[in-house]
Amino acid sequence: MRYLIVGNQTLAGDALRAAVMERDRASPASFHVVVPATPTRDHLMWSEGEASVVAQRRLDDALGWMRAVDVTATGEVGDASPALAVADALLHGEFDEILVSTLPAGPSRWIRQDLPRRLARRTGLPVTHVVAADARQPEGSTR
User: Fold this and answer.
1) What is each CA distance from 41 to 20, 51, 91, 114, 122, in whole angstroms?
2) How far is residue 109's CA from residue 75's CA, in Å, rounded to a whole number?
3) Domains of the chain: which residue ranges?
4) Is the pLDDT of residue 109 over 70?
5) Inter-residue contact 11 to 142 (CB < 8 Å)
6) In what order do the strands lie in the sheet with 30-36?
7) What tens digit of pLDDT does each residue of 1-40 get?
8) pTM exceeds 0.85, yes or no
9) Per-residue DSSP letters for 4-55?
10) In terms of Cα–Cα distance, which of 101, 119, 95 is closest to 11?
11) Nearest to 99 by CA among 1, 19, 5, 21
12) Phi, psi of 91 (to 5 degrees)
């Protein structure tokens, strides 16, 4: 099985770790993580470079914990739009399922944008929505 994960602030959260480990134990699996280079902070003052640096750090941290538990994983920093980041990843690889990792409903822009349902409709792939249990972490945090 090949899984596509799209996430940002929640990539180090326990909910995503559990979802990854469950799938990895069930059958041979590989994961590709896409981290959209979304604007940081309150989205008022940001640069594309800053967004890419934060996204790359989160990607590196996610790949680090996955490799530490012997999960086969690759990844990339993607477009600022999570939907476009997923579309780009699908151009370069085939996947059996998409895992969308978000903050809880209140702070999550991706939930307000109905991202999990939109991805399922656009891709035709099964989409699992993984919601982080913890609230928004400070911007420099990897949780």
Assistant:
1) 28, 10, 30, 22, 29
2) 22
3) 2-131
4) yes
5) yes
6) 72-78, 30-36, 2-6, 97-102, 127-131
7) 999 999 999 999 999 999 999 999 999 999 999 999 987 6
8) yes
9) EEE-STTTTSHHHHHHHHHHHHHS--EEEEEEE-PPPTTSSS--HHHHHHHH
10) 101
11) 5
12) -70, -25
**CA-to-CA dists, residue 132 to 15, 84, 106, angstroms:** 6, 22, 12
Residues whose CB is less than 8 angstroms from the CB of residue 110 and which lie 6 or more positions away in sequence, other chains included:
82, 100, 102, 103, 116
Give the whole-angstrom CA distance, residue 97 versus residue 82.
16
Residue carrying the six token digits 């409903």: 105
Cα separation, 130 vs 133, whole angstroms:
9
CA distance 133 to 141: 15
CATH superfamily placement of domain 2-131: HUPs (3.40.50.620)
CA distances from 37 to 7, 19, 25, 31 (A): 10, 23, 30, 19
